[in-house]
Specification:
247 residues, mainly alpha, Ribonuclease iii, N-terminal Endonuclease Domain, Chain A, Double Stranded RNA Binding Domain, 2 domains, three-stranded antiparallel sheet, 13 helices, 58% helix
Length: 247
């Protein structure tokens, strides 16, 4: 049997502990339902299940995982470049790596309850396969590959962006690579404008133990950027980051 035929093999007449209709609920909340649920079932099929059920000639999810890994990298790379225009290639690569690491993908798989729908061999079940981060991360990549095969890159890209939105929104770039945006901005302005940026508190909110500071950044008396943070230093760094993106 060719690999193409194997990858699209029907599961309609095969008993399965996985319920693709239940699994689709998380996709529905992100605005997506599989046109071909058989692709989702294959994405859930671990090689251990296939090896123990050779008579059923079931295709496993490894090829989908290969595809999904590339789709995920392309989607996040495009999104991060647009979201953080001031970052270098190395910085963008570091952020992407933190988003697609095994731990993050496994956590996402659990959020989608994918661990409850896996098709595993008996040995893998006994060894706790449904809780293994590597297996969960690989299955998530396989599902992304199935999304791409089901509706193309645009649909997969939209779902990926929604799924990763909160993680990207909550990124602390200073923790990721200790970026000193104030220094970078100062160097850029001194080189091109021969001026010194001025930071001023625009306001603050919240209780004393949980304040948010709002900062404005001025050049030649004019506001060129704003930033916020849980400390004055963080707010200044955020304003400098915004200024770098705007200049």
């Amino acid at each position: 049997m060719s690999s193409t035929t194997e990858d699209s093999q029907s599961f309609a007449n095969t008993e399965s502990p996985a319920n693709s209709e239940n699994l689709e609920n998380p996709f529905k909340k992100h605005g997506y339902v599989f046109k071909n649920p058989e692709l989702l079932k294959q994405a859930l099929t671990h090689k251990s299940y296939r090896n123990e059920n050779l008579k059923k000639s079931r295709a496993d999810n490894e090829r989908f995982e290969f595809l999904g890994d590339s789709v995920l990298d392309l989607s996040l790379s495009d999104h991060l470049m647009k979201r953080f225009p001031e970052l270098t290639e190395g910085e963008l690569s570091k952020i992407r790596a933190s988003l697609v690491n095994e731990s993050t993908l496994a956590d996402l798989a659990k959020e989608w309850a994918i661990d409850k729908h896996l098709l595993l061999g008996k040995g893998e079940i006994i060894s706790g396969g449904s809780a293994k981060p590597r297996l969960l991360a690989s299955t998530l990549e396989a599902i992304i590959g199935a999304l791409y095969l089901d509706s193309g890159f645009q649909a997969a890209d939209q779902i990926i962006r929604k799924i990763f939105a909160s993680r990207i929104d909550n990124l602390d770039l200073d923790i990721h690579f200790e970026s000193d945006y104030k220094t970078r901005l100062q160097e850029k302005i001194q080189e091109s404008m021969k001026q010194t940026p001025v930071y001023e508190i625009e306001g603050e909110e919240g209780l004393a133990h949980n304040k948010i500071f709002h900062m404005v950044l001025k050049l030649d008396g004019k506001i060129i950027a704003r930033g916020s943070g849980r400390s004055k230093k963080q707010a200044e760094q955020d304003a400098a980051r915004a200024a770098l993106a705007a200049l």
